[in-house]
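During the first year of the project, the team set up a workflow for recording each protein of interest as an amino acid sequence followed immediately by a discrete structure-token representation. This format lets reviewers and collaborators read both layers of information side by side without switching files. As required by the reporting guidelines, we include two representative entries from the current panel. The first entry is reproduced here exactly as it appears in our internal archive.
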Amino acid sequence: MEEVSVRTLTVSAQEDGALLRDILRGRGFSRRLITRLKLSEGMTLDGVKVKATVRARAGQQIGITEPAQKTPEPNPELVVPVLYEDGDVIVFDKPADMPVHESINHRGDTLANYFACRCRGLTFRAVNRLDRDTAGCVCVAKTRYAANILQGSISKVYTGLIPPTKLSGGRVCAPIARERESVIIRCVREDGKFSATCWQVIERRENCALCRFYLETGRTHQIRVHMAHIGLPLLGDDLYGGDCTERKGQALMCSEISFISPESGQRVTVSSDRKL
């Protein structure tokens, strides 16, 4: 399947007389997307195809037709709750054991395949990504424009289960690097990239503690690596030494996500009701 996304913008008084490319840049369009629009003749002014160097006047209508892209095959047998949706964004409550993207080992069973069914004709653009076994909020942009706007405004809160501890929380600041023998596993190493995770115990249970995590950086497996580094690996996380007696797959979820809506310009906060 292929996407053809159409958007109409009105030139404001402040943009009167500006070049079309500068107006689009000011509206959050990336240089790469503007180049693609030029190559595909996907820009119009009051319905007439124009170049990016034309000057626009206040009140004129800019038409944007984004180039088509192939999408994964839709799978109507999948079911994923939708937490929020508007004209530019959809937020899914992804279950554990579902990959976000297709891979060699996963075809047809991913969030991308459900999106292709739920939002037919649109290209799947996940703004945040979760590991297969990590559940919770996944924000997906419906257009390249929305993806570009969302990328710089998104923030997330995670919750997870760790072994019982007398600690109430803390901040782990330890550089993360790729384990030399593996393309998947990460580790704390001096030559790694700066990484920082804040965590807080919010509920103490009989055999574990429920924690909230705030990321200052966004490294692969960051929470999992950092909690293992301080001796409190996530329950079920066999990759980093977690207790798998009662759980298969890391006890971690993205419980809250917030972003600036490209449609309204207002900050939107979305939460999942899933329980760990």
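The second entry, processed by the same pipeline in the following quarter, appears below.
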Amino acid sequence: MKEETALFKAPPMTSLTLDRFRSLKNLPSLPEQIDNVLMATGTSSSMDYSIVEMIQYDPAMAMAVLKVANTPIYGYPGKISSLQQAAGLLGPGAIKNIILRTPIIERFYDKSTLSIDYVQLWIHSGITAAISGGLGRFIGGMESDVSFTSGLIHDAGVIALTVYFPTAFAEAQDFMDRNQVDLIEAEKQTIGFSHLEVAEEMIDAWGLPPQLSQVILQYTAPEKNKNNWEIAAVVALAKSLACEWGFPSGLKGFTATKQENLLGLLGISEKELQQWEPELKKYAEFSLDTMKIP
């Protein structure tokens, strides 16, 4: 036990620093997602419902659209927290240009270094978003579109780490397996920071509202005395339900807050959640159908 404790106090095993993520221009997406959106924008002269839905089930495209919408040129720098607001502000032409600049994930991903099922991760993100938005509407008193967007991009840091720095993430996974700790602890020990902090760094560098990073930083352990704790708890509950209903992220080592604790934090009874469940599952099914990922 003493050796293990000493190991935990060791300096990070990599020279990777958080500021490396400030220079990232975008996150890559799945080729199927890019093709679907380009086909939809090519056949529509206005920002119709189907195009908005396709965009908002893709975490990489969501981050890119939010980044552009929060630039000063559109008049609301650092104020657009939801993808729905961003899509309405930009319009189809600007969104199509953003999608054309979105790289394909296969150009970066090296399976020999790291084995990640990105299709599974994308589906998990989309379904977590759908459930988060639904919970926000049922609970009331919060911005359900921000809940939706937060649920969609909650694993943005994972995407950035695994795509651009797969060796560092592989070392964290190896440390996690050898020492039986959770992923966030393993990342801190091997890299010096977690994927939650990576997402915060990108959100800050890209000019997105701090509300989004506040949610992501605490969704694994939301606390009532912190800013935006309620949306963080909603995302945590949505993520748990997505896993329970057969759509996990595929990533090992997450120590999530128990559902009963999240329900208590949000003031939701188990009976209420059971009553909402059929509708929440419809939202999840709709997101799955809309993503059209094979």
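For the second entry, the following points were noted during internal review. The two ends are 46 Å apart (CA to CA). The chain is about 60% helix and 0% strand. Both points are flagged for discussion at the upcoming steering committee meeting.
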